[in-house]
Every structure is written in structure tokens, then in C-alpha cells.
Amino acid sequence: MADLSFATQPHVVIPDLPTAVRSGLTLLALDLGTTTGWALHGLDGLITSGTVSFRPGRFDGGGMRYLRFTNWLGELDRLSGPIASIWFEEVRRHAATDAAHVYGGLMATLTAWAELRGVPYEGVPVGTIKRHATGKGNADKAAMIAAARARGFSPADDNEADAIAILFWALETKGGLQ
Q: Which domain, by its residues, includes 162?
């Protein structure tokens, strides 16, 4: 189901984190798509990340990917949570129509899931994430993977690298407040 790669730096302290983060809340960052990248700052302060595929099966109906996404979020919340806040990559333009439809469906599912549970969520513009991770707002996939590796992670692909970058953006800017 999910391809997990674990990486953490337990002795690294990020200065001036908000009290909510220091007190051990679970924070989730997502790069939404058919292959969704995720990064999780757990209760213990460790960061795990990976990718999960929501590609429909041969006999799946049109809504099955969204039901699987909902179930995956619930399982993540149950095993690692409760999830205190969620950040996701906010894409304003897609090159392909199908990608736009999948992203919109996943975002609608995510926001409905979060609203039902009272979990705050926020989209982060692509350029903001790339600029924070690499210094360039139009960094390519290879640069995002290199930025994640420079932080001690081994992302499977650019989706996981983007999720790691979103999580570090949220932690280091206090969710955009700095």
C-alpha cells in the first residue's frame, strides 16, 4: 500500500517553535496527487515520510481513490495522531486536465475530513515551498529531492521530497507566521 522511507534527526532542535509543536502534536504535510507524498512530525518529535498511491484499480468505481484516501487519513490519525494540523501543496495550475481533477477530488476529500474532525489545514503555494527549500521559487524536481537529501532524508521521489519541504516550511515559519 504505502511505500515508507524513514528518516529523522532526533538531536536536531528547531529553535523558537510554537508551544503546540514543542508540546508534541502530530503535524501532517501532503503533496496531493495520484501518488501522494506525505511527511509527518510525530508526537515524539520524529519525522517520517513516504508516498502512497491512490491509483484506481481495474474494477474500481470513480470514487474509490477518494474513499481509500479517506481511510488512509483515518488510519494515519489513529496510529500517529491525533493529527493537530495539516499543510498541503496548493497547486493553482495543472498541465493536464486529469491531474487537475484528481487534485481537486483529493483536496475536497482532505478538507471535508479535516472539517469533520476540527483539524486546521492550510494550502501552501508551490513557489513558497520551493523557495524555502532551495532558494528558487521555480526549482525543478531534482533540486527538491537534493534539498530533502541535504536535510538527511532519502525521498523515494519528488512527491515525498515536496511533502518534506512543506513540513519543514510549516515548522520553520510557524505555519507561515514568520
A: 27-173
Question: Minimal CA–CA distance to 9: which of 150, 175, 114?
Answer: 150
CA distance 143 to 165: 11
Sheet with 2-6, edge to edge strand ranges = 2-6, 47-53, 35-41, 26-31, 83-90, 121-125
Which pLDDT tens digit goes with each residue over 131-169?
999 999 999 999 999 999 999 999 999 999 999 999 999
CA–CA dist 124, 101 (Å, integer) = 19
Looking at residues 62-81, what average pLDDT do you find? 94
In angstroms, rounded to a whole number, what is the distance separating the alpha carbons of residues 174 and 166?
12
Q: Does residue 147 sit within a domain? A: yes
Q: Residue 147 has which C-alpha cell?
A: 534539498
pLDDT in tens, 33-67: 999 999 999 988 899 999 999 999 999 888 999 99
Task: Domain count for the chain, please give it.
Answer: 1
Answer for the pair 150, 160: CB distance below 8 angstroms, yes or no: no
Instruction: Pick the closest to residue 134 from 146, 122, 126 (CA basis).
Output: 146
pTM of the model: 0.84
Q: Judge whether 132 and 165 are in contact, CB under 8 Å.
A: yes
